[in-house]
Amino acid sequence: MQCDVGLIGLAVMGENLALNMESRGFSVCVYNRTAERVQHFLAGRAHGKRFVGATTLQHFVDSLSTPRRIVMLVKAGKAVDELIEQLAPLLSPGDILIDGGNSLYTDTARRVQSVEAKGLLYVGSGVSGGEEGALKGPSLMPGGSAAAWPHIQPIFQAICARTPAGEPCCDWMGDGGAGHFVKMIHNGIEYGDMQLICEVYDVLKRGLGLSNPAMAEIFAEWNRGELDSYLIEITRDILAYVDGDGTETIDVILDKAGQKGTGKWTVVSALEEGSPLTLIAESVFARCLSAAKDERLAAAATLGGETRAYDGNRDALITGLRDALYAAKIISYAQGYQLMRSAGQSLGWSLNFGGIALTWRGGCIIRSAFLGDIKNAFDRDPNLVNLLLDPFFRDAVVSRQGALRQVVATAVSLGIPVPCLSAAMAYWDGYRSARLPANLLQAQRDYFGAHTYERVDRPGGEVFHTNWTGRGGDTTSQTYSH
Questions:
Q1: Out of 22-26, 199-203, 255-259, which region has the weakest mean confidence (pLDDT)?
Q2: Higher pLDDT, 154 or 306
Q3: Nearest Cα residue to 446 out of 405, 474, 404, 406
Q4: At residue 13, what are phi and psi to the nearest 5 degrees?
Q5: How far from chain centre, in Å, is Cα 38?
Q6: Residue 296 buriedness (CB in 10 A; 0-12 / 13-18 / 19+)
Q7: Angle, helices 149-159/12-23, rounded to nearest 10 degrees
């Protein structure tokens, strides 16, 4: 049997994605470096279905109809390059390699060029939604060789999630590494969303002393309103979960967070673009701080780790936490979209920002009703510079900034760290400031390094230097950098 599509890598995501494709009417050839895994899959979850199990890469390639569409789900990095080198000599011009892992977008851009030079096509596709999404419908973010899209679109848009209106949560992102770049931004926003929820949980637990069932009820209520989202939903479920022996599981989980690197990549990209991604950066550093568990235990013993209980209006604080969370979420997405806009301009991508929001509307980890509002914002103004300038989001934050300020101030007074909520507040105040103290910073740079500065009373582009000490001279740094 000549299969419609091939898949390499039968770990959890690979198995589920293969089953998803088969359930949508496509025959699938599967291959795994460990042959026993293929046999186990065919005898188990794939039994009786339209699968072919390949024993070698040559057998795998020979089992596919042309142009061959090959999905690779292997560990990002060296393993992807090695697999490409093994496959390329076996393929024919026009065959398509698809990397569905979490590859760094610059690696994908490099691979697009090298694979196209061999006469093949290459796609780097973000896949979000975890194992359940892979099985039932993920959010898909493909990019790379544009000529590949007509050949993979029928499969991708058949297996992806759907919005409540039935639209596919999958579209072409752009050339080069655009697909994996958008997925990287998705993961960065995911880091921010998760840390914001954790900070609110911390205030509810340590500040108000609420029980897990009480907090579960609060998140359940919030999930019925503007915060309706997958992450709020699972937070509700986690807080309500009880082990078989009656233990509330959340209380016995070690407070030491892990990460796979995509959040870090997002922050590095923001630094390279000079785009302020402060909230997501704080979420990455919060995980780093949590990982220093032994150090924190020692510091708590030496520096004191007690927090003060809140003695104000408890219901008002709970309402304020909801509003602060929503406002901070808007600010986080505004920063993420700013980075996408900046990188799109730098790399020559025509990113469809409303379409990206639609792609994230279902299937992925950050799926939420809120993304429909982002789609609407870019429908109103496709050239929108910042989400905070859209009337809907502007009014939403303006009406909640008081709650955000109060929550941050309260948490600080209680000794509860809220780095992402604080970063949201600082960005909001900075972005809406007509004048910031960078004039002093430029003076300092000019003082010690003759880096020059511009003046508010002269045309833009003219640069000046002051001999601040009288001991300097007229020589300045060769280039002025904004």
A1: 255-259
A2: 154
A3: 474
A4: -65, -40
A5: 31
A6: middle
A7: 90
Please give the full DSSP string across 266-299, using - where no structure is assigned: HHHHHHHHT---HHHHHHHHHHHHHH-HHHHHHH
Rounded to whole angstroms, how far apart are CA atoms 91 and 83?
A: 12
Of 167, 190, 199, 273, the catalytic one is 190
For this structure, is 190 an active site residue?
A: yes
Tell me how far apart the alpha carbons of residues 303 and 296 are, in angstroms, rounded to a whole number.
Answer: 10
3-class SS of residue 327: helix
Q: At 286, which amino acid appears?
A: A
Q: What per-residue confidence (pLDDT) applies to 473?
A: 72
Position 307 confidence tier, pLDDT thresholds 50, 70, 90: confident
pLDDT value at position 470? 84
Closest CA to 128 of 136, 118, 117: 136
Q: Report whether pLDDT(62) > 60.
A: yes
> How far does CA 272 lie from the centroid of its chain?
17
Is the per-residue pLDDT at 198 higher than 70?
yes
DSSP string of 143-161, one letter each residue: EE-GGGHHHHHHHHHHHS-
What CA–CA distance (Å, rounded) separates 337 from 329? Answer: 12
**Which residues neighbour 27 within 8 Å (Cβ) at sequence distance 6 or greater?**
1, 2, 3, 4, 5, 50, 51, 52
pTM of the model: 0.93
pLDDT score, position 478: 62
Q: What pLDDT band is residue 477 in, cutting at 50, 70 and 90?
A: low
Token pair for 313: 């209006």
Give the active site residue among 22, 167, 183, 199.
183
Burial 88-98 (b: 16+ CB within 10 A, else e): eeebeeebbbb
pLDDT at 76 over 90: no
Residue of 447, 443, 451 lying closest to 467 (CA atoms): 447
- In the numeric block, which tokens belong to residue 86? 């093994």
Nearest Cα to 352, choosing from 181, 188, 173?
173
Is there a catalytic annotation at residue 375?
A: no
Per the structure block, which two tokens stand in for 371?
């993304």
Predicted pLDDT of residue 113 = 97
Reduced to 3 states, what is the DSSP secondary structure of residue 104? Answer: coil
Tokens representing residue 116 in the block: 């196209």
Give the residue from 125, 53, 114, 51 showing the smallest Cα distance to 87: 114
